[in-house]
Design a protein that fits this description.
Oligomer: single chain
Structural class: alpha/beta
Strand content: 25-35%
Radius of gyration: 20 Å
Distance between the termini: 9 Å
């Protein structure tokens, strides 16, 4: 059996569209209100369940702290995936003394396109021991891909290390979002696939896709508008660096498939569907309103497309 396990927070988003961001202590009428299920991992699963068919030997799982199993909030979250959703919630951590999900309140300015987000989460976070107990439920002989948010790097890093210990053949991907957050570099070093945010690309002066020094070319990469290469160095300098790497780093880099992704609204993708490369060009991706979720799903199919084949 093949499994894809996504580990991260699940939110209920309340989105208010406003003509412009309000001044402090002012009243303003919103032009629209939207309440939806959010969170990077749930959003990615929403996309993936549209890509994986009943004939595919792949099970998808969400690992996330949720309110009480009987609470209305938890029921609404599960229902948001649809009646026939293949997503499994068995490994979620139900906090039975809580009835409210983690929440985000989002002010979306129609004037500038900015989004101002206020989060509230009263649910106890997943512990390393809770995660290890979940890992033990999976058979070491099964193929597994584990995807982690990087919100709590120290905890996630220890989870990844225990995962390496219990399931050494597991594929691991992580999201690396905020450059100032301690522990994210160490977390990225443990993964097979890393998704970097726009702010990381800007801080590191990474070249955009399409630039001469971007260096894309692997058939296992999904590239998209704004995606940056693993380094911004020229080809000759990069080759010299590779020669000077230690044996340990060479093995790590050979294992790793790293993308530095920037927040995206339109895509320029090399599509690899079930191992068959097709064309490269402009692609409309209708699966989700959240581009980051689309990128993870596309990268999953590219990096290990045989996982979805029976």
């Amino acid at each position: 059996m093949k499994h894809l396990i996504l580990v991260g927070a699940c939110y209920v988003d309340t989105v208010l569209s406003v003509p412009h961001y309000p001044q402090e202590d002012a009243k303003q009428r919103a032009s629209s209100l939207e309440i939806r299920r959010g969170g990077n991992c749930p959003n990615s699963l929403e996309v993936l369940q549209q890509l994986v068919g009943p004939q595919d030997a792949l099970r998808m799982h969400l690992v996330s702290p949720l309110p009480s199993k009987s609470s209305l909030a938890t029921q609404h979250i599960k229902e948001s995936f649809g009646e026939s959703s293949p997503v499994d919630f068995e490994h979620c951590l139900y906090r039975e003394t809580h009835t409210q999900a983690a929440s985000s309140y989002i002010f979306r300015s129609q004037q500038t396109g900015s989004r101002t987000i206020i989060n509230y989460n009263d649910l106890p976070e997943m512990t390393v021991d809770e995660f290890e107990a979940i890992v033990r439920r999976f058979n070491p002989s099964d193929e597994t891909w584990w995807h982690f948010e990087g919100r709590i790097p120290n905890t996630t890093l220890e989870c990844v290390r225990r995962l390496h210990d219990k399931l050494p053949n597991a594929q691991i991907s992580v999201e690396v979002e905020k450059p100032g957050r301690d522990g994210l570099r160490e977390l990225a070093a443990e993964a097979n696939v890393v998704f970097y945010s726009r702010s990381w690309a800007e801080v590191c002066s990474i070249a955009p896709w399409g630039a001469e020094e971007s260096g894309f070319g692997s058939p296992n990469h999904f590239v998209c508008e704004g995606v940056a290469s693993p380094t911004a160095k020229g080809k000759e300098e990069e080759e010299e660096d590779n020669k000077n790497e230690s044996g340990q780093n060479q093995k790590r880099h050979a294992k790793a498939e790293r993308l530095m992704c920037i927040e995206l609204r339109s895509w320029v993708c090399r599509i690899v569907s079930r191992g068959r490369a097709t064309t490269t060009g402009s692609v409309s991706v209708p699966f989700s309103k959240r581009p980051a979720a689309n990128l993870f799903c596309l990268m999953f199919f590219a990096a290990d497309s045989d996982m979805v084949n029976s």
